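Sample 3 of the quickstart, ligand magnesium ion:
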Amino acid sequence: MEQFKGKSIFHKIAIGKIFYYEKNQFTVKRSKIDNFEQEMERFEKAKKIALEQLQGLYEKALKEVGEANAAIFEVHMMMVEDDDYNDSICNIMKEQQLNAEYAVATTGDNFSEMFAQMDDDYMKARAADVKDISERLIAVLSGTSADMGIMAEPVILVAEDLAPSETVQMDKSKLLGFITRLGSSNSHTAILAKTMSIPAIIGVDIQKEWNGKLAIIDGYKGLITIEPEEDYLKEMTEKMEEEERQKQLLKELKGKETVTLDGRSIHLYANIGGVGDTASALQNGAEGIGLFRSEFLYLEQDHYPTEEEQFQAYKTVAENMAGKKVIIRTLDIGADKQVEYFNMEKEENPAMGYRAIRICLDRIDIFKTQLRALLRASAFGNISIMFPMIISVDEVMRIKEILEDVKMELKGQGFVYKEVEIGIMIETPASVFMSDELAKEVDFFSIGTNDLTQYTLAIDRQNPKLDSIYDAHHPAVLRSIQMVVDNGHKNGIWVGICGELGADTSLTETFLRMGIDELSVSPSFVLEVRKTVRDLDLSHN
Ligand code: PEP
Ligand code: MG
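Result:
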């Protein structure tokens, strides 16, 4: 048995086999074959596996993100079976006596180039799909398939690093925990681990040889044990069972009010990253959604999500939450959340760069599409819209103008929508200092402590080297929160926290004493925070 240490992201135990994930490197070798029939058989087999994988992905997407978003996998299945595509592959293998991987890669390149040249936008977008299916086929052929969507059994995922766009593809029902060499505890991948309530350990000296071996993650100690001895395995299995019993106890708090012993109540909402997370929010007793990070809709696709696709996603969340508040944040990409099809230039300092509302106010077409979808979905539930990374009143005025334009457009086209509440995220020092003015223009504030800490302390939240001094308890951050609450209340609006700090139960009392009206936390923290609030008595000093 070997043990390794890292930094723990979520306190939980996981026991399972390791799946070592390597990003596919598609360096396809070109080699001569001497038996075409045999190569053809190999190709047909790979096709069958690829189709099974795609069917699996389709069913998963159908459950998690609905019919409209799942349809892409149906398109992929049709493409794998497309006659022209298959004829071309077969031709290269037969006429040039070349291997299947090479034939698929060449055909994939040619077809994708052909689609890219087309005038029709729909056909243009198919270029990426051909590339995608070709890569899938090559991965199957070369036995390097590490498709995150098709892990056969529940596993502990080990990887160098995981980008948010990769984590969204994972089959979350098969994920027991993850271990990475890189990443920081404030990254979005870490947030995802918390949303999914699975242990994750970062900064570990991972090894490829671990693949397939039994391992234990001790999320309390940040410890990974490879091939555990029997006694240790028994001890940790018992601990895991105890953990489960505790979880059941907490469940008794489901449906109870979030109120202190002396009668002060707050709203306790959940943060989600997609339609699939609503189930977890509800199971954990969230009273609403305080932050829906809508950028994950953009990250999990290879094209701009259409108005219809977005509408379906927002509508589903609103309907699932059945009248409870659903606060949807508009697109917040840039910095660590890069989306390839946005074709953003490389920046020296992306955290302070072209991101979030700055992109939306520049690419008004993208922004308007999202606002149209949000307003249309508002007719189906209790949606509020929130804007990220605000630094000035001027930005808010421009947003409101655009929102009014979109409403007029929708009205003219006969769409119905509700008058939604609008709020802003307070996550820059500028918005803290301007909060007295900003409060006059919006219906609520939600403090994004992850970025607020980063910008207040000038510490890159992605930089693992600075993890130990990234201190969200810093008095500068806490004073900022107090200032925002006071300015919000002075102007009659409510103030919440949706950054990770909201779930820090060592600060729950402080937040309540500051006057915070709402906390929005990862679903797995809802009940723990509720328990903390219910045990508080604010009548004593
Ligand atoms: C934050 O910055 O605190 C926040 C909630 O937004 P994100 O973590 O998505 O940047
Ligand atoms: Mg933020």
